[in-house]
């Protein structure tokens, strides 16, 4: 499979672009994720010509607007250059299926970046470049390298990357009402693990009355926003039980009891998600079902990433 294009803060790949002339090489990113992702590095501060090392910057609120200025020289304001750099790079960003940002950076931080008001910090900001990049690319899955240490957030980000990758492949093949409906059907169980899928289903019910492109744009925006909320254990249990229903005529009494027990173990946190899923796959190998076989819930991304081993 072709590697998926992902934007990333250059320092996370080991490039010496930070303010102190160093880097923040991330072993998980450059090791595990590089097997599946093709990284496209961006450093906005280097991109606007600041060099490395360089004077440090911070976010400051001035007249109800957030600016990126020098710590030692507050008159040194690089807000507009950072915004312009995000706009200039947007033609490259448009080809990406995800983006990993450097946490806490006044240019690249995704959230909880310190913003100073009267020299008092409040961790409620977003880096100037990051905010503009995300505004221009509302579909793009974005995460910080620090948050990828959480199994739930890591799985959520990578799942969204693969969903967007499949969506772009669908558009490249040529969007039709039939292909859009099939895309939704194959992702329905994933959606169920995050939220109620019926709103998206109702949107597709308007396909015969509205412009396909318009419905598709609304659909993918709503889908990606829905998937931003990590799936919950409760919702996964509902999906697992829903899938179990497709085996009601195939399972023996003992097999059904075992499957119910394993799902209950998962509900109570005794086993990870991979355990009931593996058992379900075992039963569907013996009693295939075309809908379940097509569902991305059963295999949303390469198993080698081991994302559901800790969920």
Describe this entry's structure for a reader.
The protein has two domains: 4-149, no CATH class; 151-311, no CATH class. The model has no long low-confidence stretch (mean pLDDT 96). Helix 10 packs antiparallel against helix 11. With 311 residues, the protein is of the alpha/beta class. The two termini are 25 Å apart. The relative contact order is 0.09. It has helices at 27-30, 44-47, 79-88, 90-93, 128-136, 151-173, 177-192, 198-204, 212-227, 233-244, 253-267, 274-286, 290-294; strands spanning 4-9, 37-42, 57-62, 65-70, 99-101, 113-117, 120-125, 142-144. A four-stranded parallel sheet has the order 2-1-5-8, covered by helices on one side. A four-stranded mixed sheet has the order 4-3-6-7, with no helix packed on it. 44% of the residues lie in helices and 13% in strands.
